[in-house]
Design a protein that fits this description.
Elements lengths: L1 H11 L13 H23 L7 H25 L8 H8 L1 H32 L17 H22 L6 H44 L2 H30 L10 H25 L5 H42 L3 H22 L4
Helix pairs in contact: 1-2, 2-3, 3-10, 4-5, 5-6, 5-7, 6-7, 7-9, 8-9
Length: 361
């Protein structure tokens, strides 16, 4: 059935080529979608019904459910063409940004490792200190130990042990305990620092990927123009502020307003960094998605949706078929001769029991 669906789609997808506007009038646009729908459902019935797995009504159900899921896409295609807004992020990522997605996945796995290491460091520190958290609130919620709690307690314990070791001499018995406390603190700091670095990197990579998806769909012209406009305005304001301060300085000391220079310089720094980042990301993105690329990805999405609908119906048929065999197994797994032998053995046992009770001779 999957192969037959693939064969159907190889031909049916060409019908979608007639959906995008090509300069015709509104009357033609209104006629185009119903015509494509009739052609698609007819060809799907011809392809799948003869296989004998699903009947005509089930195949029609596959099509209708699929069409309901894509009809708004199709209306957009008939009016605006192959708009990249119709492409879900996972499709763009698989086609253009798989490397970035893999990096994010690696960082997520790394974050999980550091989270586990931090939890273990907190638990080990609590065990070493024999530390017990305070009672929970009135509702019985357990108070969770934090890295900050354990760091504070470890530092206090280390300080106390150092004071004790000084009093008992260099080779006092407390040095081993002090070493364990310091190792626990080091493990805690290391896990927390690694977790912070990983989270920060993950945040940057995720934000960059989100921006890359937007740049791939719509380009960077508007973003870069807006950034350049803001940068020019901030630069103009900075020059005016510098001139104002120069005039104020010449007029001598007095009650002068707070200088805006620091804020403007910070704004210019941020906007300059944003412009540089946009330029870098535009180069990495490799240009805006083309109409042909958008068309391919939208059609891929539509194929996946119709395949999902087919799988739903096939899974129902599989469950029905399995149920038939389970029913047959339940009825006929044991042979009649085996059942009769078991019955005879049971009856012999019953007769012996009744004889012992004196009910039969």
């Amino acid at each position: 059935m999957r192969q037959h669906l693939a064969d159907w789609w190889a031909i049916a997808r060409d019908d979608f080529a007639h959906l995008a506007p090509e300069g015709e009038g509104s009357a033609t646009k209104a006629e185009r979608l119903p015509k494509v729908r009739r052609a698609l459902i007819s060809s799907l019935l011809e392809k799948l019904v003869p296989v004998g797995v699903l009947d005509r009504f089930q195949v029609a159900g596959v099509f209708v459910n699929w069409w309901d899921g894509v009809k708004y896409d199709l209306k957009t295609i008939t009016t605006s063409g192959w708009s990249p807004t119709l492409i879900p992020d996972p499709y763009l990522i698989r086609r253009f940004f798989q490397k970035e997605a893999d990096e994010i996945e690696e960082l997520e796995a790394k974050q999980s490792v550091f989270e586990t290491a931090l939890a273990e460091a907190i638990e080990n520190a609590a065990a070493l200190l024999e530390y017990e958290a305070e009672e929970g609130d009135e509702e019985g919620a357990e108070v969770k130990l934090t890295a900050a709690d354990m760091r504070k307690e470890l530092k206090v314990a280390i300080k106390e042990e150092k004071a004790k070791s000084t009093s008992v001499g260099l080779f006092g018995s407390k040095l081993g305990e002090l070493s364990e406390l310091e190792k626990a603190l080091e493990a805690l700091d290391k896990a927390e620092a690694g977790l912070k670095i990983t989270k920060d990197s993950l945040k940057v990579k995720t934000e960059e990927l989100t921006l890359k998806l937007d740049l791939k769909r719509f380009g960077a012209v508007k973003r870069m123009a807006d950034t350049a406009k803001l940068l020019a305005a901030a630069t103009t304001q900075l020059k005016a502020a510098e001139a104002g301060e120069a005039v104020a300085a010449k007029s001598g000391p007095g009650c002068q307003p707070k200088s805006p220079l620091a804020g403007l310089l910070k704004d210019i720094e941020v906007l300059t960094a944003r412009a540089e980042m946009l330029t870098r990301l535009v180069n990495e993105v490799g240009g805006v998605i083309t109409d042909e690329q958008a068309r391919e990805l939208i059609l891929e999405k539509h194929h996946d949706l119709v395949a999902e609908q087919l799988e739903r119906y096939l899974n129902t048929e599989k469950r029905t078929l399995i149920g038939v065999f389970e029913n047959l197994w339940g009825k006929y797994a044991a042979a009649a001769s085996a059942l009769e032998q078991e019955r005879a053995t049971t009856m012999e046992g019953l007769q012996d029991f009744l004889k012992k009770l004196g009910y039969v001779s």
